[in-house]
Design a protein that fits this description.
about 45% helix; 7 helices; Rossmann fold; five-stranded parallel sheet; alpha/beta
């Protein structure tokens, strides 16, 4: 069974992922989420970008500090490519727009659980270009 931790202040992600069932934990505090995460084994974290906004990349680093094997997907409302890229560069496995989450949540979780990334081909190209230019 896949452990899923949702980190958000409102119930937007939780409502969109209702079909994922009992394997989902929800936390509305970024600090409590770190504590919960340290007790899970290789969870998938669905992180609402609005929780930390511009501090999301730094928070992603903190999540990895609590659980190095977690797989983080950033959920947001039409984030810019720059915002998505900054999250991917610190280790996020992908990005999903909130308004499309209900449609893709099951496939997203399955794909990420099997080691895939959840990003568009355009974001893949931008990521590769950025890494090549480092």
């Amino acid at each position: 069974m896949i452990d899923i931790l949702i980190v958000e202040e409102k119930d937007q992600i939780q409502r969109a992922c209702s079909q994922l069932g009992p394997r989902v934990s929800v936390c509305d505090s970024e600090m409590i989420a770190l504590s919960i995460l340290s007790e899970l084994s290789s969870p998938i974290v669905l992180l609402n970008h609005n929780v930390m906004k511009n501090g999301t990349p730094e928070y992603i680093k903190m999540l990895f500090g609590a659980c190095s094997s977690c797989k983080i997907i950033v959920i947001g409302d039409a984030l810019s490519e720059k915002e998505i890229l900054s999250c991917l560069l610190v280790g996020a496995r992908g990005y999903q727009q909130l308004d499309q989450l209900q449609k893709y949540s099951s496939r997203l979780v399955e794909a990420v659980d099997t080691g895939e990334a959840w990003i568009t081909r355009r974001m893949t190209a931008l990521l590769l270009d950025t890494l090549r230019n480092c």
